[in-house]
């Protein structure tokens, strides 16, 4: 049986998602940050449960911003269609998650292949921060003077990865990233040369994202150094585990050099434009 989650479900939901932490970071992070009743923040979400007897078998959610998330081990096509029925008429923008599960949801949505800007698996990595290497790197948070730099770098990152280039969204992201431990800049000779960010936190785990090095500065280990420097700061603040998905073989190599180990695949599927779910009668 599928039903919408309610507040009394939160402890069981958190326990279920924690058991699949590396593939549930957005689900659990958004739940911990926004609960079940937030209808304003883009990351607030409506959650649905599937139960098998007295235990949770799967969780599915749609954020206020239109992004889908799923954690349902062994998800089959018929169950994926059941999840999609819960959001009939809702506007969606994309889905990320465990490769096999997210692929089932993509197929159940029924959008034409050309509707997708991105629909691909990316290697998923994990690192216990006890194993984080100590690298020599000068880094700092972004400040007020970095707004234009961040906006430009986020635009370039979005263009390269196909994850978004809305000017207002880019500026808003840049503004919210200043004076925050969610973003870190690598500094050489007094100037920023690379950045890294945190997509979400869940418990003592963090998900790394938004790693960017300008093209002319690549190939010299800066991506790995900026990520390691950021994780060192976060470890001092209580983080114990980091996960990420790598968008290229070069990125994967950079992360492997600082100790990340591949644990599977993570699917990133983004529509070219928001689309409304239409479930056949």
UniProtKB/TrEMBL annotation:
Alphabetized Gene3D superfamilies for the sequence:
3.40.630.30
Q: Which organism is it from?
A: Allosediminivita pacifica
Tell me which residues make up the N-acetyltransferase domain.
Answer: 137-281
What is the top-level taxon of the source organism? Bacteria
**Classification lineage:** Bacteria, Pseudomonadati, Pseudomonadota, Alphaproteobacteria, Rhodobacterales
Q: Which UniProt keywords apply?
A: Acyltransferase, Transferase
Q: What is this protein called?
A: Acetyltransferase (GNAT) family protein
PANTHER family listed in its UniProt record: AMINOALKYLPHOSPHONATE N-ACETYLTRANSFERASE-RELATED-RELATED
State the signal peptide span.
none
GO MF, one example: acyltransferase activity, transferring groups other than amino-acyl groups
């Amino acid at each position: 049986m599928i039903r919408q989650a309610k507040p009394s479900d939160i402890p069981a939901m958190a326990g279920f998602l924690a058991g699949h932490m590396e593939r549930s970071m957005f689900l659990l992070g958004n739940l911990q940050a926004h609960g079940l009743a937030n209808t304003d923040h883009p990351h607030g979400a409506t959650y649905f449960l599937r139960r098998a007897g007295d235990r949770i078998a799967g969780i599915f959610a749609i954020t206020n911003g239109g992004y889908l998330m799923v954690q349902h081990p062994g998800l089959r096509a018929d169950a994926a269609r059941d999840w999609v029925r819960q959001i009939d008429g809702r506007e969606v923008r994309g889905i990320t998650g465990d490769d096999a599960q997210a692929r089932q949801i993509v197929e159940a949505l029924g959008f034409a292949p050309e509707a997708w800007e991105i629909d691909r698996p990316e290697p998923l990595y994990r690192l216990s921060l006890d194993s984080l290497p100590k690298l020599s790197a000068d880094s700092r948070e972004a400040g007020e003077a970095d707004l234009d730099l961040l906006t430009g770098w986020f635009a370039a990152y979005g263009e390269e990865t196909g994850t978004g280039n809305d000017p207002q969204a880019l500026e808003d992201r840049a503004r919210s990233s200043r004076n925050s431990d969610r973003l870190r800049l690598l500094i050489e000779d007094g100037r920023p040369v690379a950045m890294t960010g945190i997509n979400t936190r869940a418990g003592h785990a963090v998900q790394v994202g938004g790693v960017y090095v300008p093209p002319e500065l690549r190939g010299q280990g800066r991506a790995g150094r900026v990520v390691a420097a950021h994780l060192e700061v976060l470890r001092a603040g209580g983080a114990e585990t980091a996960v990420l998905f790598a968008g290229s073989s070069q990125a994967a190599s950079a992360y492997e050099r600082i100790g990340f180990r591949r644990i599977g695949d993570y699917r990133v599927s983004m529509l070219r434009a928001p689309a409304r779910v239409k479930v056949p009668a």
